Amino acid sequence: MEYIIFIILAYLLGSIPTGLIVGKVGFQKDIREHGSGNLGATNTFRVLGVKAGITVTIVDILKGTLAAVLPVLFQAETVYPLVVGIFAVIGHMFPIFAKFKGGKAVATSSGVILGVNPLLFLIMVCSFLVILYLTKYVSLASMLTGIITIIVTIVQQDIGLTIVISILTAFVIYRHQANIKRIINKTEPKIKWM
Hints:
Layout: H1 2-14, H2 18-27, H3 41-48, H4 50-73, H5 81-93, H6 106-116, H7 118-135, H8 138-155, H9 159-175, H10 177-184
Helix pairs in contact: 1-4, 1-5, 2-4, 3-4, 4-5, 4-6, 5-6, 5-9, 6-7, 7-8, 8-9
């Protein structure tokens, strides 16, 4: 019963459509009608600008972090935080508050990792930034960061973490299918460094 309560709470947390809220409240725009139509941080950056993009990124990360630490906050020792965190990511991808059309799982997945392993989160951020700098593709940086993180957890011999990271990375890659096709066709938008 404990697991069910935490899973529901995590899913509802993940379902908060940050990009939609920031767009409508701050800019009177529905970002689903602009850019890629995605509710995530990347589309927010493109449609609403840097400040809005940073805000959405931070909040989407914290959704995953809060979900992962809920069992700790409520001293539910039999509940595995990473499992709960997975449902926040599912909520982010398929939010009940936005007709089940959400983001691509990147920020919220990283937030889950931040909640249980801050050092690994730091490695992820550094990996993402380096790959992004070299390739200028946000989508490719997101997917490769997931794969690198899996390798790191294998080296650390943390089987539970490896399994969960593999699931989260599978989510990220699945949600980026269209991006993969565009990268292959060389039509994927690149970011512009100032």
